[in-house]
Amino acid sequence: MRHRALRALVALGATVAWLAPAPDAVSASAAPDLAIGEDRWDLVGLGVISATARGQRLDVELAPGRTRRFTVRIGNPGASTATFRISGSPGQIPFTATYVAGDGTDVTGEVVSGTYELTLGSGARAFLYLDVAATADAETGARRTVRVEGATLDGSTLDRVAVRAEVPPIRVWGVNHRGTLRCDAEFPLRTLLPGRDTSARLALTNITDGKLRLTWPTGGLVLRDEAGAVLWDTRSLLLLRASPRHPFPGYLVLRSGRSVEIPVLETRIRWSGPIDVEPTCGLPRLPMPSVTLGVEAPGAPATVSGSIAAAIAEPGSPWQVCPPGPFGEPATGVLETPDGQDLPSLTLRCWASVRREEGFDVVSLHLVSPSDAPAYEIGEGTEIGWWEGLPGEANMLALRWSFVVTTEDARPYLSQMRARALGEGETVTYALSDGVWETWGWGPCGYESMGYAPTGEVLLLDWISGCSQTAATATEPARRLVRLPDERTLTA
């Protein structure tokens, strides 16, 4: 009996020995070991087997139109020869993924379809190259993950590595002539939106070994067209700026190696692209590189009259009592006080001008009061902070409210006011914001005023009909300075 059991055991052992693979045969028992890096000597994931790519992922930035190559090392940690199936993610907009074998053969089709196979001896390794590219029109913030997977033929065990690519913001920098401060500028939008800011961010860094004390700077932007002509220079606002957060002229103490973000005087985009944008950090002799940004073309109303109507439709707009003609022709109307105060009404003469850009319209609404006032139009120039007097000597009000109009909406980008209120009596300053008129201030007549809101979110109006002067005065009128709650809205 014992001999029979021994013979059975020997027979079973022979069977097991016959089923076991020879040292050179294919085995499907051990997972491949994948690692990834930008070269063969700096890899993550070596010796780590993870089906989720945890601890085996590279996070990289990839600018539009750029390509980065990654090396995928595929090793056989098993005790015998094994064949592995290698698969990888296809490209996903705005990124593309290309796979190249170690001998330079493009194997993208096989890897993406999951039919690419490698046979490796125990302890052997092979290399696969992954090229990830961002398309030329990739926008900031776009992010995709490309995964590479190695598995046994039966799929029972596997290892994954990954690359997560993200399109970074545009960054430029410059150093002042003394070599003490570095200015860093960041533009998150590569394609600007009509009626919106550039969203630029500026920061200063102390690159000395000591502490620096300087007047608190304010950043600005110089915008130019393709020919190099200046479209707008927000630095002209510096003389008017008064920020509660960073009072002018406050002081900044910056320790060695420390950085601070500084406020940026912005402007809303109302020009077709491309636009050349030069950031400035508000310090002398600190040159900065410029960046070229595109501008979206969302589409404009079919007619000029449609664009004018969209701009006038802003809730509370005084142009609703004197809507210009279909091509902006002048019209007259009468405006009563928005809060019912017992002041004489304003007679208005209103008109509009339209500039057609690529994919949007720019509408400027103009008015003067009284309706028979001299012809006058507030200009839109780069020297927006400069005092501009009204024609004649009689009391007069002039407004300009400008909009970017698309098929979707009308967004204000600038409002301006000029007023002369002389003689006896009192006048009221009204402010229109979010469709609601509010009384911002009142006081005796005898002044000239200028109002300016670089975002157009607030429209100022001085009710000049409360003042009696209609002829020249021997007294030099006062020039009035008012500061609104929104630090971007400035009046003088």
- Overall average pLDDT: 85
Shape, principal axes of CA atoms: elongated
Question: How many alpha or pi helices?
Answer: 3
Largest beta sheet, briefly?
9 strands, mixed
% residues in beta strands = 35-45%
Q: Radius of gyration over alpha carbons?
A: 35 Å
Count of beta strands: 33
Helix content: under 10%
Which structural category fits the helices and strands?
A: mainly beta
End-to-end separation: 116 Å
Number of domains: 3
Question: Ranges with pLDDT <50 over ≥5 residues?
Answer: 1-28, 239-248, 481-492
Structure overview:
This protein has 492 residues and is mainly beta. The protein folds into 3 domains: 33-166, Immunoglobulin-like (Sandwich); 170-295, Immunoglobulin-like (Sandwich); 304-379 and 391-491, no CATH class. 7% of the residues lie in helices and 43% in strands. The protein contains 3 helices and 33 strands. The strands form 7 sheets. Strands 22, 23, 24, 25, 26, 29, 31, 32 and 33 form a 9-stranded mixed beta sheet that branches. Strand 25 and strand 26 form a beta hairpin. The radius of gyration is 35 Å and the shape is elongated. The N and C termini lie far apart (116 Å).
